[in-house]
Amino acid sequence: MFPALIHTITYLKGGIFGVPLFHKRESQFSIRTPWGLSFPPAYVDTHSLSRRRKIYSQEKGFRYQSMEKPESDVAIIDYLQDAPLSDSYEAALEALSSLVRQQKHGDQKTIGGKYGKLDRMRMYLKTLDLEERVAGLKIIHVAGTKGKGSTCTFCEAILRESGFRTGLFTSPHLIDVRERFRINGVDISEVKFLLYFWNCWNQLKEHETEDLPMPPLFQFLTVLAFKIFVCEQVDVSIIEVGLGGRNDSTNVIEKPVVCGITSLGMDHTETLGNTIGQIASHKAGVFKHQIPAFTVLQVSEAMDVLQENARELMVPLKVVEPLDSKALNGLKLSLSGDHQFSNAGLAVSLCKTWLQRTGNWEKLFQKDNREANLPEAFLRGLSTAHISGRAQIVHDSSSSISHVSPEVAETSGDLIFYLDGAHSPESIEACAKWFSVAVKGNNQSPSLVLSSSHNIENINVVWKNGHVQHEKCNIQEFNKISKKILLFNCMEVRDPQILLPRLVSTCASSGTFFSKAIFVPSISTYNKVTSGTSVVPSDISSKDLSWQFSLQRLWERIVHGIDTDLLEKSTKMDGAETSPHREFLYEDASNCSPSNGYFACSAVIPSLPLTIKWLRDCVRENPSLRLQVLVTGSLHLVGDVLKVIRR
C-alpha cells in the first residue's frame, strides 16, 4: 500500500485543505476547492502523481506530506496553523443539520424520485469511488433491538487488543457526532473528520440531481463511515445497523465476514411491524448467502423467522449462550448489567469467526487450543470495552461540598447520575435491574446507612416516600440519607404506558423505590446536529411542556392508582416557579394534591440545565443528602445530561 498524500494550501486562514470556511449565508453549503471534484482520492499511486504534485506546488502554492501512519494527525495539524478550526467544525455540523428530513416515524414516502434507499446508497458510493474499496473491507455487521452498540463495542475492543486496527461505526451519538466513528477505540479527530466530511460533501453536492438528491442524515453518515474506514486502512470494520436491517442504509454491505443479531424486542413498530416475527424478518435482512451468522436466545416466534431466513440463504446460523462469568478468569465485564453477558457471548463468537475466516486465528492463538479458555486478548477486550450512556455511573464533582475530601467525593458523592438510554420495554427492564443492583453498592440499607458506633435510643423509623424520619434518636455518626430520583423523558413515538410501569415494577421487585420523579424536555432538537461545545439554549419561555405533563399524570396514576387532573402551568413562568421548593424532596407521599403546580411524588421542570442546578443546590445545602438519579427513557436525554454536567 502506498503512503497517503495529503495536499493543502500553504496558509489556511480560510479553512483546511483548500476548503474555505463555511458561512451561514451560503444556503447551498457549496464548498469549492482547487480540484474539480474537491479532493483527490485518499490513496493514489505516488508515481502517477509525482509530475502533477510538482505542478501544483509551483503554480498553486500547494505542499504535500507523505503519511506513513494513517493514525497520525501531525502532518495535517502542521498545516492548520491559525485556521479557526472550531468555526469550520460548526460549519460542518450546520451542513449536516440541513440533511435532517422532517419525516414522521413510519413515513415510507420515497426520497429521491425513482431510486430506492439502497439503490441510492450504491450510487453515492459509486460517486465517491468507494464501491470496490467497501467490498474490500473485512466487516462484522450487527443488527438487533437491544445490545447492538454494546456487542459492537465488545467486538472492537477484543480485536483491537488482538493487534488489529479497528473501525467502529455506531449510532446515535450522545454529545458529538464524531463519537459514531472510532478508529482504534478513539473518536475520530476534528481534523480528520473535517477532511473526510468535506471530501464526501463536495463530491455528492456536485453530482446532486432531482433523482439523486443529497442523502438524508443517516445515509450520509453511513457513507462517511465507509469513506473513513477505507482511507484509514482499518483491518476490521464493525458496523452497527441503524434501524431494522433489510432496508437499513448499512445493508449495502454485500459480503461481510460474519453477521450477528442481538436480542429482539418490540421497538420501532411503526416502521418494522407490530409483531416480533415481522421485526425479526427485518433484522434477518442482514443475512447474506452462505455467510456465517450468530444470534442470542430469542423468543420462539422470532427464532423461527430467523432460522427460516437463514435456511433460504444457506446461512449457517448458530445460537450463542450468554458468556459464563467463570470464563473471565476472575475479571469483570467492563459493561455493567447481567444482560451484558449475552452481548459478550455474541461478541466472542463473532470475533472468533472473524479471526478464523480471515486466517488470523491460528496465527495468533495457536497455543490456545482449549475451547474453554478465552485468549488473553479477548479477556482484555471484554474487561476494558467502554460505551457511554449505557449503564454508566457518573459522580457529579460540581455538587461536592468544600469540606468533603476529593477521595470521599469520588467514592460516594452527593449527587450520582446513573445513565442508561433504554427506550424499549425489554431494555427498560434491563436498566431497572442494573440500577437496583448499582444503587445497593452505595447503600447498606435502602435509605440510611449507620456505622457500628451509633448510640441509638428509642428510634422510630417511619418509611414515607423513601424518606426516613427519626424520633428521639441520638446518632453520633451517620452517613448519607439516600434518595432515588427518576429523571425521565422519551420520544412521543414511544409508549410510556408500557415503559414507566415496567420500570417501576422491575425496580420494586428488587426492593428499589423512587422518592421522586422529574420530567424534563431534552435539550437536543431532532432537526439539528450539535457538538459538545454547542450553545445550550437558555430560553425556556417557548417550551411546550404538554408531553412532560402527560408523563407526570401517568406517573402519579402508576404510583398512587389515581387519575389526577393536573393543572398545566403556563409556559411563561416566573423564575421562582420554574423549579420545586427545597421541601419537595421531603414531602409526605400521602400529600398527592397539587401544590403550586407540583405533586408530592413528581415535578415537571421546563429545562434540563435548571434541573441539574436544582439537584446540585439541594445536595450543597444538605450535607447529609445523597441523590441517586436514574436518567433513562432516551439516549438524547442521556447525552444532554452528560453535556450539561461536564461543562
From TrEMBL:
Molecular function terms from GO: ATP binding; metal ion binding; tetrahydrofolylpolyglutamate synthase activity
Keyword Ligase: yes
TM ranges: none
UniProt record similarity statement: Belongs to the folylpolyglutamate synthase family.
Alphabetically ordered keywords of this record: ATP-binding, Ligase, Magnesium, Metal-binding, Nucleotide-binding, One-carbon metabolism
EC number assigned by the record: 6.3.2.17
Catalytic activity: (6S)-5,6,7,8-tetrahydrofolyl-(gamma-L-Glu)(n) + L-glutamate + ATP = (6S)-5,6,7,8-tetrahydrofolyl-(gamma-L-Glu)(n+1) + ADP + phosphate + H(+)
Descriptive protein name: Folylpolyglutamate synthase
Cofactor requirement: a monovalent cation
NCBIfam families per the UniProt record, alphabetical: folC
PROSITE patterns: FOLYLPOLYGLU_SYNT_2 (PS01012)
GO cellular component terms given for this protein: cytosol; mitochondrion
One GO term of the biological process aspect: one-carbon metabolic process
The organism's taxonomic lineage, starting at the top: Eukaryota, Viridiplantae, Streptophyta, Embryophyta, Tracheophyta
Gene3D superfamilies linked: Mur ligase, C-terminal domain, Mur-like, catalytic domain
